[in-house]
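Budget justification, computational time. The allocation requested in the original proposal was used primarily to generate structure tokens for proteins on the priority list. As evidence of use, we reproduce two of the resulting records. The first is shown immediately below.
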Amino acid sequence: MDHINISPQDLSVIVAAAVAAELDKRDAKHSNTLVSRKITAQRLGVDVSTLWRWAKTGYLQPLRIGGKVWYREEAIIEIENGKRIV
């Protein structure tokens, strides 16, 4: 069996690249995911009337598809992580 010699710095670069690639995959997945109004309200700990008010102010814009209301996963995550201020 052959051995590969790799420096700690090179290993760090390889690991960082692999982690970045996985995070990019996760972000791409979330950017295409839609969440129902009920689940969004539960996740954010608010009433659906709050979601309606946020839509009116532009804070969290819903998507209306086939008569149903949906929210983008990435927007919900931003609110959960405190990246959006009410």
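The second record produced under the same allocation is shown here.
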Amino acid sequence: MTSATPTPSALPTRHFMAVIGTGLVVMLADTDAGSVITAAQSGAQWGYKLLLMQLILIPILYIVQELTVRLGLVTGKGHGQLIEQHFGKFWAWFSFSTLLISCIGALLSELSGLAGVGSLLNIPQPITISLVVLALIVMALTRGYLTIERIALIIGGFELIFVIVAYLAQPNSADLMSDSFTIPFDNKDYLYLVSANIGAVIMPWMVFFQQSSVVERKLTTADLPIARADTAIGAVITQIVMVAVLIATAATIGTAAGEHNLDTVQQISESITPFIGNFAGKLLFGIGMTGAAMVATIVVTITAARTFGEVAKVNYGLDYKFRDAPMFYGAYILILIAAAAIVLSGINLVTLSIGVQVINSLLLPFVLGFLFLLAQRLPEPYRLKGTYAIASGVIIFITTAIGVYSGIAGLMN
């Protein structure tokens, strides 16, 4: 008995499903614990005044990550490799150092967020962190990239819980519309959160991860249209989550009189309970935060280890066995353990997470600068050129300038 031959109409669908995934994973990771906390603090402190920014960032995020995908598919090389090829070893290691700063900062946010969720369940921080680190090490050592990508997609899907939370918070539509267009650019505290929100959406490790992932999956230029659609869908989903978190906190405490700073995961959880109850609030927040933090922890750790492998010119990638890529897996394990040790030393999660996002904004001139220059060096017909190049350059410049200016202004406050 012979197997059935796929119908012509089924082949494009099968191909689409085979290609899609990397963009969704990196975008779900983009809405990590630090981003959730930044959005929550934005809603708590400023109501809906930072809501419009979340929508404006959707096309900007797509432009950045589309260039990343294009570089990976056309050249078949990771971001660190391309920087070395075109600009030399010094700049390759320099780019890795900026990436490492961003990755370590992100991991601190993710592990702290998971520890905070554990605390909601009365689980001691050392136990939560140890279990997470152990699970991630075992997963990396026993599973290939595609399997881990699917795991990350499933875990990251829990972030959509925040959309339910925002709906249950019953935001006042009139307040939402009027407040969204009230932008106090003369307030340095506001500017600090502007910078944090930019850094929470456009992160250095996203560029490195997505480019290396499409290479590791052996995608080609024929897959570019689907990869672009994957990235566009992900960009919308990640900002829907950010909007939902901001609305949830703005609708509960952000519209009340007085200042409302959130200092712990427990406080963020409690801030969304007035309309949906204590138990439901903690449960939904805990599920969403776990999804956000876990998928980002997976992505960030892989990114740092991969890029180290690229610039150090050693075997790297989850499809290698440990004996064939010991430095890659060693870097992966070392980064996780180092971040876990710092988290267990005791730090303020909210202050740390927002600070990490501001650092991301301050690193944008280097990250987006290299990205833009590399995209202009691609072969025809994939080279960034013409009107789109000008528009992309202007958007990247303005976004970077606002992120850096807002961050510095906020830090000087």
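A brief technical remark on that second record: The first helix runs from residue 10 to 19.
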